[in-house]
Amino acid sequence: MKSDLLNEYDLAIKPFLEAYFNPHSCVQVSTSGSTGEPKLIELDKEKMVASAKATLDYFNLKKGDTVLLSLPTKFIAGKMIWVRSIVGELNVLVSKPTSNPIKSLDKKVEFAAMTPHQVGVCLDENPEKFDLIDQLIIGGGAVSESLLVRIQKLTTKCYATYGMTETITHVAVKKLNGTDQSACYEAVGQTTFEVGAQGNLIINAPHLSHKKIETNDIVRLINSRQFEWLGRLDFVINSGGVKLFPEQIESKLENIINNRFFVWKEKDELLGEKAVLVIEGTSTYLPDLSKVLDKIERPKLTYRADEFIYTENGKLDRKASYLKALKT
């Protein structure tokens, strides 16, 4: 693609490539804002290259392979598609970062990255296009149980990714379909894992950082290279001494609540904290939650908001959406 056409796809592409090839050792990147205010941080280009090499090795990508760029270059996930392509001498097929980035796909690609929302829309509108994608990583949000069921029919090898801007995208992946489907995330590159005092994941990635990276994710550690993700530490609800993970409750509710929703927490005089349900839309219908939830898991109150609030890169802002629902 001619460089003067790149702006028609993504305004951030040219500025990033110019910054990447300039003499400075670092690149400025915006964090996602999913757990706080977005902020600019500097990433060392050598560390970006190390991350790229780890991904190239894990997915066995070779010189001349083609990767699909369907994520905004403004954020780290899009930037790293370019870095992997530069380091691995891969071809880049640029698509507009829309909800359906494969609508016009007409050639085979060895590797692609999408959000769960993009995968869902593509399955709705052009499921046949997945036959053109060999390997697909899905990041930027949790893969729902319903989406997991749908991708079992694909020949595309699908993986969930775990990581953040500070780890220069993913440091672990989980196979989502096929005979080697797994419930656990497996480390990429030189990464190893341990857990902190609160059961939160601590990342040791010497190829990316000389310091350990302490996260807010609660996990069950399988070994130093594998873990099962349970939920966010800052989302955990301590209800009467029982720890409830909203993400696990949400997965049980997916098939009985049609609207978008999430589980949040409120202070409670008796329990300390209680689970509450926040639903998008004005419908007052609520299914019988006792069919899928134990008594302790069931939200004690239900709130509704006409529309949820999302961060700039499309992630649900739970706190802001909850506060909006309180005012409705």
TrEMBL record:
Gene Ontology BP terms? fatty acid metabolic process
Note the superkingdom of the native organism: Bacteria
**Occurrences of domain AMP-dependent synthetase/ligase (ranges):** 31-193
**Ranges in coiled-coil conformation:** none
Q: Pfam families from the xrefs?
A: AMP-binding
Which N-terminal residues, if any, form the signal peptide? none
**Keywords associated with the record:** Ligase
Enzyme Commission number, as recorded? 6.2.1.26
- For this protein, what is any one GO molecular function term? medium-chain fatty acid-CoA ligase activity
Read off the SUPFAM superfamilies from this record.
Acetyl-CoA synthetase-like (SSF56801)
Q: Which PANTHER family match?
A: 2-SUCCINYLBENZOATE--COA LIGASE, CHLOROPLASTIC_PEROXISOMAL (PTHR43201:SF32), ACYL-COA SYNTHETASE (PTHR43201)
Protein name, as recorded: 2-succinylbenzoate--CoA ligase
Q: Which organism is it from?
A: Parvicella tangerina
